[in-house]
Amino acid sequence: MPALPSAELAVLDNPQPLRHYEIRCETPELTCLCPRTGQPDFADVEIVYVPAEKIVELKSLKLYLWSYRDEGAFHEDVTNRILDDLVSALSPRSMTVTTRWNVRGGITTTVTARHP
Which of 55, 49, 3, 2 is nearest to 24 (CA)? Predict the structure, then answer.
């Protein structure tokens, strides 16, 4: 049976908690539904963070992002919720989430949310 989407993020201990280093996770597979039309929206997502004590387990991140697939949400909300959920789970030193949404109605949208 294949995996199912999950809003739960698994975390791991940072193997180098005293070092300030950057982790960059990127995927072209973020999708959600337009809350007005119900049509699918597609985005590239980039998550860049400097961890403190915890890092995100990558399979759980993939399943977490998949959980947006059938949800109606605006681009700005999705981006900020991803940031909020990851910050809540990881308490990173810093984090930036950027979503680059495919053309809809002749307009591309890029949303960037930052912590702190």
Answer: 49
Closest CA to 78 of 89, 90, 66, 88: 66
Q: Is 2 among the domain residues?
A: no
Q: By residue range, what is the domain housing residue 83?
A: 11-115
Per-residue pLDDT of the chain (116 residues; tens, 9 = 90+): 568 999 999 999 999 999 999 999 999 999 999 999 999 999 999 999 999 999 999 999 999 999 999 999 999 999 999 999 999 999 999 999 999 999 988 899 999 999 99
Q: Classify residue 93: in a domain, yes or no.
A: yes
- Alpha-carbon distances of 32 from 18, 55, 73, 94, rounded to whole Å: 37, 25, 7, 26
pTM over 0.85: yes
Residues forming beta bridges with residue 107, ordered by sequence position:
104
Q: What is the CATH number of the domain that holds 51?
A: 3.30.1130.10
List the catalytic residues: 34, 41
Structural domains of the chain, count: 1
